[in-house]
């Protein structure tokens, strides 16, 4: 992965997150409230799962290219 590819991936994530806030601000506010109320261990586990899935997906897509 190149630095340019990493920056492009970050740009896509920011664009998608921005669309969520633009299209459904109330739902995003509720999601953030639920996140702030969640226990730290649950957030840590969810973050780790998301990171592993993201890395695995990037690895699979990199191999397919």
From TrEMBL:
It holds the Pfam family DUF2065. The chain crosses the membrane at residues 6-24, 45-64. Keywords: Membrane, Transmembrane, Transmembrane helix. This is DUF2065 domain-containing protein. It comes from Caldovatus aquaticus.
């Amino acid at each position: 992965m190149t630095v340019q590819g990493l920056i492009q991936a970050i740009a896509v994530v920011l664009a998608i997150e921005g669309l969520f806030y633009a299209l459904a601000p109330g739902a995003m506010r509720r999601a953030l409230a639920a996140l702030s109320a969640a226990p730290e261990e649950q957030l840590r586990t969810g973050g780790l799962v998301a990171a592993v899935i993201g890395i695995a997906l990037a690895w699979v897509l990199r191999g397919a290219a």
